[in-house]
Amino acid sequence: MNFHVLTLFPEMVAAAFGTSITGRAMEKGILGLHTVNIRDFSLRGDGRIDDYPYGGGAGMVMQAEPVMRAWESLREELPGRVRVIYLNPQGRVFDQRMAKELALEEDLVFLCGHYEGIDERVLGEIVTDHVSIGDYVLTGGELPVLVMMDAVARMVPGVLSNQESGQSESFQGGLLEYPQYSRPEDWRGKKVPPVLLSGHHANVDRWRREQSILRTLRNRPELLETAVFDKKDRKYMRALASGQAEDEITPDQAVFLSKLLAIMEKS
Ligand code: ADE
Questions:
Q1: How far is Cα 154 from Cα 165, in angstroms, rounded to an integer?
Q2: Are 176 and 223 in contact (CB under 8 A)?
Q3: In whole angstroms, what separates CA 5 from the centre of its chain?
Q4: Among candidates 30, 57, 26, 62, which has minimal Cα distance to 47?
Q5: What are phi and psi of 35, to 5 degrees?
Q6: CB within 8 A of 171, min separation 6: which ones?
Q7: How does pLDDT run across 178-213, given as a tens digit for each residue?
Q8: 137 C-beta closer than 6 A to ligand 1
Q9: From the CA of 19, how far away is ligand 1's center (Å)?
Q10: Is the CB–ligand 1 distance for residue 115 below 6 Å?
Q11: From the alpha carbon of 113, which atom of ligand 1 is closest?
Q12: What letter would DSSP give residue 57?
């Protein structure tokens, strides 16, 4: 899979993406990164690509023509229909589902903005998807594009080794991941949960599943509304809600869980 990035800071994108797992995947030829420096398409001798906003206001706007020319330099090498993603806080919020969907593409183009944004007219010409990585404002699109490329890349077959495989992880099945432990068994007086030392795989799986439910309830309760639960899950959730489980939850969490169970039992 090939990522193409239109940016004012190609070295920033290349340095981060060339490191660690994504860097290894590039060496193996599974991933490709191609950056285009928008500044190379400046209309002025000084390399500037920004100008004042019409209508006034603070900050500068990236001009349409350098962005268009940067895109045109890339378009010739790409297949006819390719997604062009513009990173901005007004876009649809990126999530794991979108990462999986984008991983099916052969080529993806990302456009990084700076300053107060990019002239709307060129966005209308070239952008297919407006995407935000969350409800906060960053100084430019380079960090968001790195976040997105990392999340998409690890969904591309061959990028993760078997050991790193993303099969049982957060958001898989709509729940957060269970806690992990490694050696030593006793670290500064804190013990590894005994079930993990038991060698009883079914019990380990059940414990992990329950810890996933518990963590999701504590940190992201809204995710429980769309997750799918079996009989054993519901038994654990009832025990939690009624204070009969080993794990403790707050009274508010118990009320939330009881309501959810009532809805589930009706449907
Ligand atoms: N550019 C600036 N802030 C951003 C955000 N939250 N997501 C995507 N692009 C951005």
A1: 9
A2: yes
A3: 17
A4: 62
A5: -105, 145
A6: 95, 96
A7: 999 999 999 999 999 999 999 999 999 999 999 999
A8: yes
A9: 22
A10: no
A11: 1
A12: -
**Distance between first and last Cα of the chain:** 42
Is the omega angle on the peptide bond into residue 157 within 30 degrees of 0, that is, cis? no
Whether 22 lines ligand 1, by a CB cut-off of 6 Å, is no
Query: Which ligand 1 atom lies nearest to the CA of residue 88?
Result: 9
Report all structural domains of the chain as residue ranges with CATH numbers, in order of start.
2-163 (3.40.1280.10), 172-266 (1.10.1270.20)
The token duo for 188 is: 């500064």
Residue 117 near ligand 1, beta carbon < 6 Å:
no
- pTM, two decimals, is 0.93
Cα(6) to centroid(ligand 1), Å: 15
Q: Which residue has the tokens 């999986």?
A: 100
Tens of pLDDT, residues 59-91 = 999 999 999 999 999 999 998 899 999 999 999
CA 69 – CA 67 distance, rounded (Å) = 5
Query: Of all protein residues, whose CA lies closest to atom 9 belonging to ligand 1?
Result: 88
